[in-house]
Amino acid sequence: MPFTFVPSQEIVEYAQLKAQISEDECMEMLVKQISFYFSRQNLVKDTFMLSKMTTNMQLPTDVVFNFHKIQAITNDFDLFITALKKSGLFVTEDRVLVSPKVEHSKKDVVLMKQLPSSSTETDVLALFDETKPELAQIDPTTWTATFPTEKQASMFVQKNQELVVGDKAVSVTIKPALPMKTFLDAARADGLEVADFDVSKAMPVWFYRQRGPRGDKSKNTKKGGKPRGDKARKGGKVVKDAQFPALGSVSNGAVLCSGYTA
What we know:
Largest sheet: 4 strands, antiparallel
Low-confidence stretches: 215-253
CATH superfamily of the largest domain: Winged helix-like DNA-binding domain superfamily/Winged helix DNA-binding domain
Structural class: alpha+beta
Number of helices: 10
Order of helices and strands: EHHHHEHHHEEEHEEHEEEHE
Strand content: 5-15%
Number of domains: 2
């Protein structure tokens, strides 16, 4: 027995609104929302986004794409990627990761490994000439030396490529500050409210590289290409708020922008 579909007034109004929104307007809404997420004021205190980022401040595009406010605007992944780029963000070629523009990390920190475990701060300072850097001990055999300038750090590394202390060869390399640490430290220095986030717990740079390229399948699509949604009830019953052609699957959240070619 055929059933009768009766869309609610809310759906009808939503469909009419959607029909009036152009692709340019959709893009403007996406860019505005994305720009807020990645704004300095929001990002420094957004512990969820920070926890999903790598130490280089790269975030999976899927994470942002699945934010509720993004899904309320579009479930078109291609349109979303275009919006990321128009927001001034860096998107990897495979579309797996996105990152904000951050200040270049200074290369003024020297990492010295395999020093004798008995070394004291006085012993390590004796390795330097006139310029005495700020020292920090990472573990019994590893120290860092922070120089006033990148040039001084670079010169020390060049002069000590074959450094030997006691009977041990010491590894001497430049240790750039982590982009995320630089970003958060600069925000604190500027008086911004910054989340109490341990940068050492950020995702390693390689973590998300195990993911394959992101396709353009919608979150609201099952395998086989069929959209998710409530199954229409049969038996002559009236069906309200089920799958409505103009909106896609209303039961999983209607979207304003879909079906464009990004």
